[in-house]
Amino acid sequence: MAEPFSVSISVRGYETDSQGHLNQAVYLQYAEHARWSVLRAAGIEQADLLAKGVGPVALENTIRYYSELRAGDEVEVTCAFIWGERKTFRIEQLIRKADGTRAAELHSIGGLLDLGERQMVADPREYFRALADDPAVIGL
After folding, report:
1. pLDDT at 103
2. Rounded to an integer, what distance in angstroms lies between the CA atom of residue 42 and that of residue 135?
């Protein structure tokens, strides 16, 4: 099986808390950055989704922490979409240090919101597939 898409990020000092650890909210920002990066790698820009009248939404995020991150650490954030047959999809992400140490795992459930109707679209795969230049990057 191929490695999932990943992006590299340097932990910045201002992202840390009073103990010098990466602030918990920043893990979600890193995950979001990786999600938008994989969509761009597939050829989907945020403006493309908005032009179609849809936008991705997070319905659930779970983070499990394994190893602390500190300012200056180099991390890799992976992103893999797992498509279902209905309105939602899962996103599995791993944050690991440059030496391969697992720092955190994120498990998310997302969907695609019709911005006019304010309802989830029935099959988000068809929107992503239609917009992507390379749908295989996002598992389609």
Report:
1. 98
2. 6
- Report the C-alpha dihedral over residues 128, 81, 78, 49, rounded to 10 degrees: 20
Is 140 a member of any domain? Answer: no
C-alpha to C-alpha distance for 140 and 137, rounded to whole angstroms: 7
Determine the 3-state secondary structure of 26 from DSSP. Answer: helix
- Three-state DSSP class for 111? strand
- Under the banding of pLDDT at 50, 70 and 90, the label for residue 3 is confident
pTM: 0.94
What range does the domain containing 61 cover? 5-135
Question: CB under 8 Å to 8, separation ≥6 — which residues?
Answer: 74, 75, 76, 77
Q: Give the number of C-alpha atoms closer than 13 A to the C-alpha of residue 20, restricted to the C-beta side.
A: 4
User: What CATH number corresponds to the domain at position 96?
Assistant: 3.10.129.10
